[in-house]
Amino acid sequence: MRTRGSLLLVLALLLAGCAGCSGGGGSDTGPITLRFQSLAWQEESVETNKQLVKEWNATHPEVRVEYVQGSWDSVHDQLLTSFEGGEAPDVIHDASDDLADFAHGGYLADLTDLLPERLRSDIPQRSWETTTFGDGVYGVPFLQEPRVLVANATWLAESGVRVPTPERPWSWAEFRRITEQLSGDGRYGVAWPLKDPVSATLNLSLSAGGQLFHRGPDGKVTVRFGAGDEVVPRTVHDQVGEDRSAPGSLLGSGGSDTLPGFFAGKYAMVPLGFSYRQQIVQQAPKGFDWQVLPAPAGAEGLTQGVSPQTLSVAEDSPHQQEAAAFIDFLLRPPHMVRLALGDWMLPTGTTALADPALHSTEHDWAVGTALAAHLRPAPAQSVRGYPEWKDKVATPAFQEYYSGAIGLDELRDRLEDDGNLVLARYQR
To answer: Rounded to whole angstroms, how far apart are CA atoms 81 and 90?
Structure first.
């Protein structure tokens, strides 16, 4: 009886150990399950992502993908917690400027040998630079958007000002003069929503030759606030404080917060990401005529920085090849076009970007695609410690400068002196 009891106990333990064999991780007796955390939030975009997951699952019974909804508002801290707890999703949707610390921390898989040549060659090298850290590639950049000026077309036409095009944009000086010309009687030429002043300022400053972050021969990064870095913040500061062509009350607002006033005729223009066109189409009152204009140009023309949306694979995922295959499926050119249309953004892939649907004059898609060739990696792209520098040093410094609480010299000192102390901790 003792022998029989021992055999039963061993059998029970074996059965218990195999109880999850056909579950999450998969085995010979069941499909693999990948968790895909998406940050899509607009209804159209969420539906497109879920539909593509459904199409994958219908044609890949051996590898099932589970859609997990994430949020841009908390993604960095949420991912850090999941990485450290061993609970990270297999496929991770994020932005390229959030990847540096995760890549250097060993949380993301190097995709260099996992991605097919089709995908590697279709996306330009300048986009791959946003997800390359050291010798590894830690994400696939797939959606991007330029910052543009969304303008009240009727107001501009009645004023008689020259309307810029991608071929003949305004200079930053001309932009300032025109916003002053459009202002008066309680109305403003421009409204700057700078709830996140750092990325907007740094990315637009590339047009004026600004760089801010400089990497030395030893690989270490230092902050230097030069003449090119001054152009954009000085323009905003002077529009608010001297010309009264921009309301200071909106400097801490998000882009969506400016739309009611824009529709009501309080502001002639609002600098926004290209994807805001969807909200404008949905919310604009009947008969409101608007148009998309290129952001002002500087010494470097229309160049501006971007941090593309990315897809990465967790280093701890036991199914990295399958996860990379799913990313390749999501980013086939027709699928990339669907994702771009769903998010009202531009695809990074050259084949998708050539699709006629993205060159339509309706909703000024053609203006955005004309700017795609001028997009470059955001200055902060590969800087370790950028999130801390941004939150603790740069954001409060820019906010105080734009509000008039500090001058340009103090802004420079804080960005350089305090900023370099923060970055130094990440470069030892």
So the answer is: 15
Mean local confidence (pLDDT), 6-25: 39
Q: Hey, what are 176's tokens?
A: 């300032």
From CA 357, how far away is CA 342, in angstroms rounded?
A: 12
> What tokens does 417 get?
């002196």
| % of the chain residues with pLDDT over 90 | 86
Task: List CB contacts of 171: < 8 A, sequence separation 6 or more.
Answer: 296, 297, 298
pLDDT for 42 equals 86
Instruction: Write the pLDDT tens digit of every residue in 292-336.
Output: 999 999 999 999 999 999 999 999 999 999 999 999 999 999 999
Supply the pLDDT for residue 381: 79
pLDDT band (50, 70, 90) for residue 25: low
Contacts of 239 (CB under 8 A, 6+ apart): 176, 179, 180, 189, 190, 192, 245, 246
The answer to whether the CB of 160 falls within 8 A of the CB of 154 is no
Residue 204 has phi, psi (to 5 degrees) of -70, -25
CA-based torsion, 378, 424, 139, 35: positive or negative: negative
CA–CA separation, 377 vs 307, rounded Å? 6
Nearest to 348 by CA among 34, 125, 53, 111: 125
Residue type, 276: Y
Q: What is the DSSP letter of 187?
A: B
Determine which helix (DSSP H) or strand (DSSP E) holds 270, and give its type and residue range.
strand 267-273
* pTM metric for this prediction: 0.88
Q: pLDDT class for 13, splitting at 50, 70, 90?
A: very low
- What backbone torsions phi and psi does residue 383 show, to the nearest 5 degrees? -90, 115
**71's torsion region: left (phi>0), alpha (psi -120 to 50) or beta?**
beta
Q: Is the model's pLDDT at 26 over the cut of 70? A: no
DSSP code, position 174:
H
Count of CB atoms within 10 A of residue 99's CB?
26
